[in-house]
Amino acid sequence: MRIITIILVALILLLQYPLWLGKGGWMKVREFGQQLEVEKQANQKIHERNALMDAEVRDLKQGTEAIEEHARSKMSMIKQGEVFFQFTENQPAPASAVVETPPALPSRD
After folding, report:
1. What's the confidence (pLDDT) of residue 34?
2. Rounded to a whole number, what is the distance in angstroms from the first to the last CA of the chain?
3. Lowest mean pLDDT segment, chosen from 11-15, 41-45, 67-71, 105-109
4. What is the band of 46 on the pLDDT scale with cuts at 50, 70, 90?
5. DSSP string over 43-90
6. Number of domains within the chain
7. What pLDDT score does 41 carry?
8. Does a structural domain hold residue 102?
9. What is the C-alpha to C-alpha distance for residues 90 and 9, in angstroms, rounded to an integer?
10. DSSP for residue 22
11. Mean pLDDT, residues 14-36
């Protein structure tokens, strides 16, 4: 009777091995599920980026406002007759940009 029990336990263990550690076992399914979630997140980001690019392409094809905005922001273009003002914060000039002038010579009047 004892030998039959050992054989049955060994048989059950042999049947359980592929379920847990085999090619299509639970561990692999869980690992593939995690990889699938990572890929879904990456695809979602790509879909959002594509939607933004699609909207920009439609704007460029249909309207001149988008073209004008693109030219102004990316290429620093201005309309004819406009005056361009650029405001910068007061920051000290870098040491390499500071040019010292030599002292003036006394005049011989």
Report:
1. 95
2. 131
3. 105-109
4. very high
5. HHHHHHHHHHHHHHHHHHHH-HHHHHHHHHHHH----TT---------
6. 1
7. 97
8. no
9. 82
10. S
11. 84
> Among 45, 46, 67, 47, which Cα is nearest to 56's?
67
Is the residue at 4 inside a domain? no
How many angstroms separate the CA atoms of 62 and 74, rounded? 19
Query: Would 50 be classed as within a structural domain?
Result: yes
| Tokens found for residue 68 | 């004008």
Sequence letter at residue 77: M
- Determine the 3-state secondary structure of 82 from DSSP: coil
Q: Residue 40: give the domain boundaries.
A: 24-72
**Inter-axis angle of helices 2-21 and 26-62, to 10 degrees?**
10
Asked if residue 52 is part of any domain, the answer here is yes
Average pLDDT, the chain: 80
Could you give the CA distance from residue 100 to residue 67 in angstroms, rounded to a whole number? 45
Q: What is the DSSP letter of 81?
A: T
CA distance 68 to 106: 56
pLDDT digits (tens, 9 = 90+) for 79-108: 788 787 777 787 666 655 555 555 655 656
